[in-house]
């Protein structure tokens, strides 16, 4: 039953100079349209990253469009205005009651929208991603995500933040375990206790080494993400993800990046991006006996870009 | 073009890639041959046919979801394909701009970078300031009122002295567009500040260090100028515009770049803030003169600040506006010189000042009584 185990690596083929051109054109168009081009610029940039990321010699593809994201952008701004609006009106009118109601609306509103934003961005982004013509998908339930966020949010509050490690991992486990690639699916094996200990160790060692351990902490966090990820195929075979990143590697990456930024007065940002993408992606090894050719298309088209933009505006990094 | 072009075909049903060959069969379509010998026509003129070009690859897709996809990496083919699309009007504006930019004219990049830098340094602040001029000044009052109400709880206001300071301020005409409201707050800091729209807070710490009514008048004139010239609102507009510009244009480029840019933005605001302080000194002196007070009082106020504000660490010296008092003193002295001394000295303020000054009971004589 077991086939030969193979090893794959993600590859990043983008060149700094080419990304520089794409981003400069984006900046120019965003500037002359007074910012309205932003969603299109974002779609172009994402496309560029996907197109230059390869698995088994085949590139990924981003299907999202600027107009889709523009509609989401407008809705997201309207929603944020609604959430912050009561507060701002209250402050300007100098009415204490309206201010208090506004603060309440703001807190409840933002908290209530976080799961929606995570859910929506995952659905949008995954449905707009494909590899070899097969689409990714997210099949998590919004209600379940709310349940996790409410429960873990309360526990985090009660434990004065200590439970945050479990919160993070529970959300990560739930969302990643409901990601699919056509007929194959993903699972995440991480658990909060381990993650907590890892952060505890990272925090104190970073303190004791005056910050130097931060790179190794970063490596541990990255490894914890990657090494616990499994890709299950419909025939029961699977592919395991293994990180080959090292603390020294992260150290070199970040120090050189910083030097590039300083000595090019920021102009080298595109090369910094490419170096980072290359380091991260090329340190993810995939091992297993599964047949990458055997996946079948399963996901339907999904149309709703709002949450993707909300995620952007609120700066919630769903993907690492 | 009778060549056979290698291509990769995804059928949209399974993840199995197929090594196909592509041939230009007629003007309107390509002929695609799959490894198993199957062949079909790929329409080029059909509305549902989409194409995208990245730096090294052409991606054609066709049909309903899930779409069928052809990837072609043959450079010659890509070139002639793009030309064809250009002539049949199917090349979008973006692709044109990008292919122009990719051809690498250095002048283009220099131009864009120069444009963005100019926009950030000059156009943007200018536009932000114009915007503030359009916004009615009642906005300043509302923002200031809201801010004052929120901080009032934390301020230990001295009611009697506040009334006295209000009378002191009202004896002068310092801000034509706003009605300044003065507050005295029990606090050892040698400082004072103004909120947009009219609230001016003076700490008892600075009052105690003052030796003449004219110094207090100079302080109020300085703060009232911040209000009158809408400095806070202008500052807010500028820094918000700068922040928006940076986050829209380079915000999601890279965390390090964003960090550097945001700090540079903050530094620039600080620098702008220094400009506003000088303006408050200058216009304040004109106000003093207009109210029959000696503009030299501003110099003495600044000297007082310089003596007392030694608690700012040296490292921050070039960042903070305070240690630059030296320059401000020189400038204020020059302005006082050119403004001259008022003809009819204003002596209404002396009595009002005594109510505010703790050493009233035991008058000291060490202060110089003559100004020239």
- Measured by DSSP, the beta-strand proportion of chain A falls in 5-15%
Instruction: Provide the spatial order of strands within the biggest beta sheet of chain A.
Output: 1-2-3-4-5-6-7-8-9-10
Strand order of the largest sheet of chain B: 4-3-2-1-7-6-5
What's the total number of strands of chain B?
10
Helix content of chain A: 55-70%
Main interface: chain pair and counts = A-B, 57 and 49 residues
Secondary-structure element string of chain B: EEEEEEEHHHHHEEEHHHHHHH
- Report the radius of gyration of chain B as a whole number of Å: 35 Å
Q: How much of the residues of chain B is beta strand, in percent? A: 5-15%
Description:
The complex is a heterodimer of chains A (320) and B (372). Chain A is an alpha+beta fold and 320 residues long. Chain A has helices at 16-32, 38-51, 66-93, 96-127, 142-158, 164-176, 192-208, 214-227, 247-263, 269-282, 306-313; strands at 6-12, 53-55, 58-62, 129-131, 134-138, 179-181, 184-188, 229-232, 238-243, 284-288. Chain A has a domain at 141-177. Chain A is built from eleven helices and ten strands. Chain A has a ten-stranded antiparallel β-barrel with strand order 1-2-3-4-5-6-7-8-9-10, surrounded by five helices. In chain A, strand 2 and strand 3 form a beta hairpin. The longest helix of chain A is centred in the middle third of the chain and has 32 residues, at 96-127. Helix content of chain B is 52%, strand content 14%. Chain B has helices spanning 75-87, 93-102, 106-134, 138-152, 159-170, 204-209, 213-228, 231-249, 255-290, 296-308, 325-339, 349-356, and strands at residues 5-10, 18-26, 29-33, 39-43, 50-53, 58-62, 68-72, 181-185, 192-194, 199-203. In chain B, the strands form two sheets. Chain B has a seven-stranded antiparallel β-sheet with strand order 4-3-2-1-7-6-5. The chains are: A alpha+beta (320), B alpha+beta (372). At the A-B interface, helix 1, helix 2, strand 3, helix 3 and helix 9 of A face strand 7, helix 2, helix 3, helix 4 and helix 8 of B.
């Amino acid at each position: 039953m077991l086939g030969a185990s193979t090893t794959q690596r993600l590859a990043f083929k983008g060149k700094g100079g080419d990304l520089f051109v794409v981003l400069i054109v984006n900046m120019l168009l965003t500037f002359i349209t007074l910012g309205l081009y932003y969603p299109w610029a974002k779609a172009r940039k994402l496309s560029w990253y996907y197109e230059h990321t390869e698995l088994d010699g085949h590139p990924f593809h981003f299907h999202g469009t600027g107009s889709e994201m523009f509609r989401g952008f407008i809705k997201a701004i309207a929603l944020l205005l609604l959430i912050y609006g009561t507060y701002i009106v209250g402050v300007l009118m100098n009415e204490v009651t309206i201010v208090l109601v506004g603060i309440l609306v703001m807190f409840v509103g933002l908290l209530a929208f976080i799961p929606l934003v995570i859910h929506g961005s995952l659905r949008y982004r995954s449905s707009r991603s494909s590899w070899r013509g097969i689409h990714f998908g997210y099949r998590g339930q919004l209600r379940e995500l709310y349940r996790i966020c409410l429960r873990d949010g309360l526990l985090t509050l009660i434990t004065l933040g200590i439970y945050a490690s479990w919160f993070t991992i529970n959300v990560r486990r739930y969302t990643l375990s409901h990601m699919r690639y056509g007929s194959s699916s993903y699972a995440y094996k991480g658990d909060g206790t381990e993650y907590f200990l890892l952060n505890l160790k990272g925090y104190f060692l970073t303190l004791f080494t005056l910050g130097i351990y931060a790179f190794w902490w970063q490596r541990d966090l990255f490894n914890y993400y990657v090494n616990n990820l499994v890709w299950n195929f419909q025939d029961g075979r699977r592919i395991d993800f293994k990180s080959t990143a090292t603390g020294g590697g992260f150290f070199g990456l970040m120090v050189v990046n910083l030097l590039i930024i300083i000595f090019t007065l920021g102009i080298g940002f595109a090369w910094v991006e490419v170096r980072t993408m290359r380091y991260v992606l090329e340190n993810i090894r995939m091992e297993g006996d599964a047949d990458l050719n055997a996946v079948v298309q399963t996901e339907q088209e999904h149309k709703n870009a709002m949450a993707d933009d909300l995620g952007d505006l609120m700066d919630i990094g769903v993907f690492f | 073009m009778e060549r056979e072009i290698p291509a990769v075909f995804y059928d949209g049903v399974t993840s199995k890639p197929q090594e196909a060959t592509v041939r230009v069969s007629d003007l309107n379509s390509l002929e695609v041959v799959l490894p198993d010998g199957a062949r079909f026509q790929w329409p080029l003129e059909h509305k549902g046919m989409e194409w995208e070009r990245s730096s090294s690859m052409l991606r054609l897709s066709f049909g309903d979801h899930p779409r069928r996809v052809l990837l072609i990496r043959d450079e010659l083919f890509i070139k002639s394909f793009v030309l064809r699309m250009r002539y049949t009007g199917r090349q979008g504006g973006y692709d044109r701009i990008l292919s122009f930019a990719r051809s690498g004219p250095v002048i283009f990049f220099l131009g864009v970078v120069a444009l963005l830098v100019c926009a950030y340094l000059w156009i943007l602040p200018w536009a932000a300031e114009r915007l503030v001029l359009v916004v009615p000044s009642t906005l300043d009052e509302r923002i200031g009122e809201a801010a004052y109400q929120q901080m009032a709880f934390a301020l230990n206001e001295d009611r009697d002295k506040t009334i006295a300071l209000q009378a002191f301020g009202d004896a002068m005409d310092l801000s034509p567009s706003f009605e300044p409201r003065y507050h005295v707050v029990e606090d050892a800091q040698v400082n004072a500040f103004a909120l947009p729209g009219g609230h001016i807070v003076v700490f008892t710490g600075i009052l105690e260090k003052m030796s003449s009514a004219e110094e207090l008048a100079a302080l109020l004139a300085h703060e009232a100028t911040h209000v009158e010239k809408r400095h806070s609102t202008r500052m807010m507009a500028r820094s918000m515009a700068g922040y928006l510009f940076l986050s829209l244009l380079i915000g999601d480029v890279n965390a390090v770049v964003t960090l550097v840019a945001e700090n540079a933005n903050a530094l620039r605001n600080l620098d702008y803030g220094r400009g506003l302080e000088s303006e408050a000194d200058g216009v304040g002196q004109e106000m003093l003169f207009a109210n029959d007070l000696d503009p030299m009082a501003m110099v003495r106020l600044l000297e007082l600040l310089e003596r007392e504000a030694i608690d700012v660490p040296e490292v921050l010296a070039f960042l903070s506006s305070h240690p630059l008092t030296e320059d401000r003193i020189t400038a204020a002295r020059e302005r006082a010189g050119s403004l001259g001394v008022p003809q009819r000295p204003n002596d209404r303020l002396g009595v009002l000042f005594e109510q505010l000054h703790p050493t009233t009971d035991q008058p000291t004589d060490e202060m110089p009584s003559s100004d020239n």
